[in-house]
Amino acid sequence: MKKLKIIYQGEPGANSHLACNDAYPEAEAIPSATFEGAFAAVSEGSVDLAMIPIENSVAGRVADIHHLLPESGLYVIGEHFERVRHQLLVIKGSKIENIKTVHSHTMALGQCRNVIRALGLRPVIEADTAGSARIIKEAGDKSQAAIASDLAAQIHNLEIIRGDIEDADHNTTRFLILSKEPNDALPEDGPVMTSF
Predict the structure, then answer these.
(1) CA–CA separation, 148 vs 142, rounded Å?
(2) How far is CA 135 from the centre of its chain?
(3) What is each CA distance from 161 to 17, 19, 95, 158, 164, in whole angstroms?
(4) 160 in helix, strand or coil?
């Protein structure tokens, strides 16, 4: 039997990657540099599904998705709620008092203001959380940290110097699961909620 392929926007270790692993543990999670690329891969049939973030309980709606989605020609076949846990990652052997900058996506930086302020760090905006982990790994600079997932820490062999640093413990992202083919829930399947 063919293995299900699900695409997400971001680098390996992104929260969208975690959402794919949690919602479809047996599937192969495939990274895409852009949302447009993810939508195109589903439309072309090179992957089966896309895991696309639509809103976060702290930061609000995800920019771009609301105008890209109607034009995609894809069907929403499900949703997934992923609890977001941010980790402060460093090169192994780094000391917290030596960290000067913290790299991450603007949403993650905004969701971890308390720790950033308490440690006196200068935030540096990057394209995504997992990418920031890769950037500090490649730099090898012990004065730099990244805010990313524990999966990004594993992938890039980084140390979690502070765990679960998000300001709000209800920090959750809602994802839509998209398919080329419709898969409508039937009333007899149980409780159903429809949204437009």
Answers:
(1) 16
(2) 16
(3) 22, 23, 8, 9, 10
(4) strand
Catalytic residues: 173, 175
Buried b (16+ CB within 10 A) or exposed e, 141-178: bbebbbbbbbbbbebbebebbbeebbeeeebebbbbbb
Closest CA to 80 of 172, 180, 192: 172
HSE at residue 173, side-chain half, CA atoms within 13 A, is 25
- The model's pLDDT over 44-96, given as tens digits with 9 standing for 90+, comes to 999 999 999 999 888 788 877 888 888 899 999 999 999 999 999 999 999 99
* Nearest to 134, CA basis, from 91, 83, 82: 91
Residue 85 phi/psi, 5-degree rounding, is -120, 120
- Read off the DSSP letter of residue 79: E
User: Within a 10 A sphere around the Cβ of 102, how many other Cβ atoms?
Assistant: 25
Instruction: Report pLDDT digits (tens) over 139-160.
Output: 999 999 999 999 999 999 999 9
DSSP 114: H
